[in-house]
Design goal:
The protein has one domain: TIM Barrel. 30% of the residues lie in helices and 20% in strands. It has a twelve-stranded mixed β-sheet. The two termini are 28 Å apart. Bound molecules: S-adenosylmethionine and iron/sulfur cluster. Iron/sulfur cluster binds next to helix 10.
Length: 321
């Protein structure tokens, strides 16, 4: 189907779909608080393929597969291959906690995933349990990152959520670790989806400099909200990404749309509006009917997110970050 390009109510073009394949997770990150009884995954492989075809027909060019933990789905490589084969889709990306990556990095790369983000908040195995729960296995995550380095992804990023009192003394080491593994470190301000106190991006930059990372401006922009600087330290150098979700305004150039693990469209991560698409799919709705529902939901998208203090947001694990 080809149709008029997708735009939200503020006139921003939508070119990037974040598709959460499951609300289940093998970790219990304190700031994300996934539900322990997330149940079975509502969205099927066929649903995912149909929705991606629909969005590609309306101008979406990049899809990120996320969760919950997307690698818990046995059909993840098949879903990735379907997405990669969809006419119009130029890039398939994946975000994972890395625990199952050692065995999956090569199959996912073969399936057509070209860009990979791995979450790694700490280099200290003993700190991982407090951040991510008892099931998180530091050695397996590091093996996953090494396998990802070998698999030849066009882009490898390490996502670090900076949590006050937990990992802010490690930011320089995390930078050097990422560069040493051919990856770009990205420091994310904690958003109010669970426990923990954020560290503002400005302070993260100061901490990095205090921890031996020299930073200079760099205007690299990717598809997402990250802003970059170029850093160097101890004979290593590379880009550093910053996602100032709480203290920096990036909503004005938002190009994203989300479909949660429940098959509902969310026009904004930091909002509560949902458009359930699965009932339409199950009722045999045409692409035209689905497109009408999607466009109506996007028209309600506000100028900016509602993630202020005390905001009651939809759970992060079901939305996919
Ligand atoms: N399970 C995968 C993972 O952790 O990488 C993918 C889903 S997770 C929801 C996507 C990203 O959101 C991760 O990089 C995670 O660190 C980040 N995230 C989760 N909760 C967050 C929060 N409260 N604030 C900022 N980032 C958060
Ligand atoms: Fe799971 Fe990712 Fe949430 Fe951590 S951030 S609990 S790994 S979904």
């Amino acid at each position: 189907m080809s149709a008029a390009p997708l735009c939200d109510g503020q006139g921003r073009a939508v070119t990037y779909l974040r598709l959460s394949l499951t609300a289940r997770c093998n970790f219990r990150c304190s700031y994300c608080s996934p539900s322990p009884d997330a149940g079975t995954d509502a969205i099927t492989r066929d649903d995912a393929a149909r929705l991606v075809r629909l969005f590609a027909g309306m101008g979406v060019r990049r899809v990120r597969l996320t969760g919950g933990e997307p690698t818990l789905r046995r059909d993840l490589p098949d879903i990735a291959a379907d997405v990669a084969a969809t006419p119009g889709i130029e890039e398939v990306a994946l975000t994972t906690n890395g625990q199952r990556l050692a065995e999956l990095a090569a199959p996912l790369r073969r399936a057509g995933v070209s860009r990979l983000n791995v979450s790694l908040d700490t280099l200290a195995p003993e700190r991982l349990e407090a951040l991510a729960g008892r099931a998180a296995d530091h050695a397996r995550i590091l093996a996953g990152i090494a396998a990802a380095g070998q698999a030849g992804f066009a882009s490898l990023k390490l996502n670090v959520v900076v949590v006050r009192g937990q990992n802010e003394a490690e930011l320089g080491d995390l930078c050097r670790f990422a560069w040493g593994h051919g990856a770009v470190p990205r420091f994310i301000e904690l958003m109010p989806f669970g426990a923990g106190e954020p560290v503002p991006t400005l302070e993260v930059k100061q901490l990095l400099q205090a921890q031996g990372v020299a930073l200079v401006p760099d205007d690299t922009r990717g598809w997402g909200p990250a802003r970059h600087m170029r850093g160097s330290s101890a004979g290593l150098s590379g880009l550093v990404g910053f996602i100032g979700a709480m203290t920096e305004s990036f909503c004005q150039d938002c190009n994203r749309i989300r479909v949660g693990a429940d098959g509902a469209l969310r026009s904004c991560l930091g909002g509560r509006d949902r458009v359930p698409l699965l009932p339409l799919l199950r009722d045999g709705a045409s692409d035209e009917a689905l497109a009408v529902a999607v466009r109506a939901g996007l028209l309600r998208k506000g100028v900016q997110h509602e993630m202020g203090p005390g905001a009651a947001l939809l759970p992060m694990a079901g939305v996919g970050g």
